[in-house]
Amino acid sequence: MPDALKPGSVVGILGGGQLGRMLALAGHRLGVRSHIYCPDPHSPAFDVTPLRTVAAYDDEAALARFAAEVDVITYEFENVPARTAELLARLKPLRPGARALAVAQDRIAEKTFLTGVGVPVAPFAPVDSPATLAVALSSLGYPSVLKTTRLGYDGKGQRILRSAEDLDTAFAALEPKPLVLERFIPFEREISVIVARAVSGPVAAYDPAENLHQHHILKTSTVPATLSAASAAEAIGIATTIVNALEYVGVLGVEFFVLADGALLVNEIAPRVHNSGHWTEAVCITDQFEQHMRAVLGWPLGDPTRLADVVMENLVGDEIAAIPARLGAGQRPHAYGKTEARPGRKMGHITHVRRFGDEK
Fold first, then answer.
1. Is the peptide bond before 178 cis (omega within 30 degrees of 0)?
2. Do 17 and 34 have their domain in common?
3. Does some domain include residue 1?
4. What confidence tier does 150 reach under pLDDT thresholds 50, 70, 90?
5. Which of 108, 147, 213, 258 has the fewest C-beta atoms lying within 10 Å of its C-beta?
6. Residues 35, 23 contacting (CB under 8 angstroms)
7. Helix (H/G/I), strand (E/B), else coil: 27
8. For residues 269 and 117, is the Cβ–Cβ distance under 8 A?
9. Same structural domain for residues 216 and 82?
10. What is the number of domains present in the chain?
11. What is the rounded distance in angstroms from the CA atom of residue 80 to the CA atom of residue 271?
């Protein structure tokens, strides 16, 4: 692979949270260094690499210095400002590329892209005023979900509309505008597929995970999912379609609704390593973090084969303090090094491993 970067190269990572931290740790195993760029001087990723830039994402002088000190650039969160991505892409390879960011940052752009490549999503309509909201509801009906098109995560930035009485309050409360209205989907379960694509085009996908949420925050990811072999293959096929259509490089998370008849709808995509893929670090030959770094470096993708059944459990807020008491056979902890255990903040996870053939 003539364009592959060599061990000793420097990967620039935009974002200093737990995902950036885990990417940097994976890079260490591969013999590459990671340079973290983040405006927060207390970022947990700074604990695992001496190479850092503390500056705002719109500081063009700092971004130029950062780009000069790295060989390739990636990111751990999808809300990197578009101008930042465009500037950096002119200076060094940006993987995944700016198009993936543009699609994933805006729910209307995302759903329009997905439907354009034949991927099924919930019926939706753009909303920019109370009048267009009323028109959209006449088509989509109640209940529907009104969402911000940008900056929504962990259940933030959305309201369920159950009657006309909810319209004005919901429209006024959600910012920034415009918004998007989606038909409420009475799904049976939620799953996700973590998929990776290399610079030269090969794709590797992990087994689908079944996800449970508490208070809109992912609580557990279980593999294998309660899913037929045909539906699992379909989910992986859809994820593969998405990364190929984007000419994507790196790891992508694809979240699905599974309907009562087994049909799949894509809920959203995340152009980065994904919380629901943390289980891979305990039971896969190549975990999602190493896989992403391999792709970014221009290396061959690793083997995503799963060697055991597994449940990944997020530790939120004060739950992190219980790690010592929780540990037993088959349990692997990962603390993120965050200094403040705020309510609703992901502080770490425990992976519960069950070897094939063991009783549940």
1. yes
2. yes
3. no
4. confident
5. 213
6. no
7. helix
8. no
9. no
10. 3
11. 11
Per-residue pLDDT averaged across 159-168, rounded?
84
Which pLDDT value is given to residue 48?
97
- Nearest CA among 15, 65, 69 for reference residue 40: 15
Q: At which of 183, 203, 219 does a domain end? A: 183
Say which CATH number the domain at 129 has: 3.30.1490.20
- Euclidean distance between CA atoms 156 and 15, whole angstroms: 20
pLDDT in tens, 119-139: 999 999 999 988 898 898 889
Residue 317, beta-bridge partner list: none
Residues in the chain: 360
Q: Which domain holds residue 292?
A: 189-354
Q: What is the rounded CA–CA span in Å between residue 159 and residue 170? A: 6
Two structure tokens written together for 225: 């999912």
Q: Let me know if 193 is exposed, middle or buried by CB neighbors in 10 A (0-12, 13-18, 19+).
A: buried
d(CA 217, CA 215): 5
Residue 114 lies inside a defined structural domain of this protein: no
* Domain assignment of residue 115, yes or no: no
Give helix then strand counts, H and E, for the chain. 11, 17
Helix (H, G, I), strand (E, B) or coil at 161: strand
Taking residues 261-267, what's their average pLDDT? 95
Picking from 322, 324, 329, the residue whose alpha carbon sits closest to that of residue 359 is: 329
Which residue type occupies 143?
P
d(CA 217, CA 316): 9
Distance CA 32, CA 277 (A): 22
If we measure between CA atoms, which residue out of 177, 190, 181 comes closest to residue 160?
181
Contacts with 290 (C-beta within 8 Å, 6 or more apart), sequence order = 26, 29, 30, 302
Q: Phi, psi at residue 121, to the nearest 5°?
A: -135, 170
| Burial class for 44, CB neighbours closer than 10 Å (0-12, 13-18, 19+) | buried
- Quickly state the pLDDT bin for 152 (edges 50, 70, 90): low
Please tell me the pTM assigned to this model: 0.94
